[in-house]
Write a structure and sequence with these properties.
It is found in: Membrane. With 371 residues, the chain is of the alpha+beta class. It has helices at 9-13, 81-87, 127-141, 173-178, 188-208, 264-280, 292-295, 297-305, 325-338, 349-362; strands spanning 34-35, 77-78, 96-100, 103-109, 116-122, 151-155, 162-166, 213-214, 223-225, 231-233.
Length: 371
């Protein structure tokens, strides 16, 4: 069954020519957001009913980055640097949960209500970047979706620029796929539910949020899990403040490797990489493997994507035989379309969401189309 029957036959046959090699990873940095640009994919199922994201380059807000929004119009809480220092015990090392060239992320407990939060301290320089921070905060504060992390508040005291987000109790998805200390591998049903709900969050950003947003560096470490393993896209990943445009992670997008723009098609590619990671239990880059083709998940999977007889070779050994074969075939079909090297042939996220209903149905799962 072709899940993307609305595409032309040439696009369907392109499934066997999945995306090209991934680039070398040089530095871990957070995903960022830019205004979404349209895909040139012709989809008879969606083009008449769903408006494509507006062709707007640059900022994730319709407001210019050098225009400072009125802080009274930002619908979120303002914290003092002193309050956030107290929440993190003066930013102690044992509260540090992540860092990169963009800054550091700490776990904290707000004194007023004892709420667990994650606090991102940004490295920003210059007046324009600091003004842009408030524009980004205004954008983040308006996001409302069950599968996107909520912004709790921010701090803009003196030269300090910090974001405060809700903290998820189970941490990031990569821990449960790749950490050998985790003794209970995620079952097939949980993996596909995580993929489905992450797709819903991404589709919301692309099509329902105004202005449309792209995530850019979507990866397993930016998908956070609540106590019931419900995924939320990290709001920290939606900050367009410090990360370079070129993606050097394992989720490298061929069409964007030398581009100054980021489009919805690149987000779709990265979703395909994550779907492969969920299916296979392999990292996007695994340097312990002997050869380049084995190290990069897309190159490793490419010969198997178009051959249903080889789909079982993609499955995580930890799952053994505990997965529905039809659901596997349909999930691999979705991943293959997302990973096409020709960006214009990739589906939109709304197509991915619709196609995932077949994956969930094949596994006997409850179907949630949109939130």
């Amino acid at each position: 069954m072709n899940l993307f029957c609305c595409f032309s036959s040439s696009n369907t046959n392109a499934t066997r020519n999945a995306a090209g090699p991934a680039a070398e990873s040089t530095e871990e940095s957070p995903p960022t957001v830019t205004s979404a640009q349209p895909s040139s994919l012709e989809s008879t199922r969606t083009t008449d009913t769903v408006p494509r994201p507006k062709n707007v380059a640059g900022n994730s807000s319709s407001q210019a980055p050098n225009t400072v929004p009125n802080i009274n119009n930002i619908p979120t809480q303002i914290f003092t640097f002193q309050e956030l220092g107290a929440a993190t015990k003066k930013f102690r090392k044992d509260h540090l949960i992540g860092e990169g060239h963009y800054g550091k992320v700490y776990k904290g407990i707000l004194g007023k209500n004892g709420r667990d939060v994650a606090i991102k301290e940004l490295n920003l320089r210059g007046v324009q970047e600091k003004n842009k921070f408030l524009v980004e905060v205004l954008t983040l504060s308006k996001i409302r979706h069950a599968n996107v992390l909520n912004l709790v508040g921010y701090c803009a005291d003196d030269n300090h620029r910090l974001l405060v987000c809700e903290q998820t109790p189970r941490g990031s998805l990569d821990k449960y796929l790749f950490d050998l200390a985790w003794q209970h591998p995620l079952d097939w049903s949980t993996r596909m539910r995580i993929a489905n709900d992450a797709a819903l969050g991404l589709e919301y950003l692309h099509n329902k949020f105004n202005p449309p947003l792209t995530y850019r560096k979507l990866r397993t470490s930016s998908i956070l899990l609540d106590e019931n393993f419900n995924p939320k896209l990290s709001a920290f990943g939606l900050s367009n403040l410090a990360a370079p445009v070129i993606d050097t992670d394992g989720n490298c997008v061929p069409s964007c490797a030398a581009s100054a723009q980021w489009r919805v098609e690149e987000d779709v590619f990265n979703f395909g990489v994550i779907l492969l990671e969920l299916i296979s239990g392999r990292r996007s880059i695994d340097r312990s493997k002997p050869s380049y083709d084995q190290q990069h998940i897309v190159d490793w999977a490419r010969p198997m994507l178009g051959d249903k007889r080889r789909h079982p070779e993609l499955i995580d050994p930890l799952l053994k035989d505990d997965y529905p074969s039809l659901a596997l075939n349909r999930a691999v079909d979705v991943a293959a379309m997302c990973l096409l090297q020709n960006a214009s042939c990739r589906p939109l996220m709304i197509d991915v969401v619709l196609s995932f209903t077949a994956v969930m149905a094949a596994g006997g799962e409850e179907i949630t189309l949109f939130r």
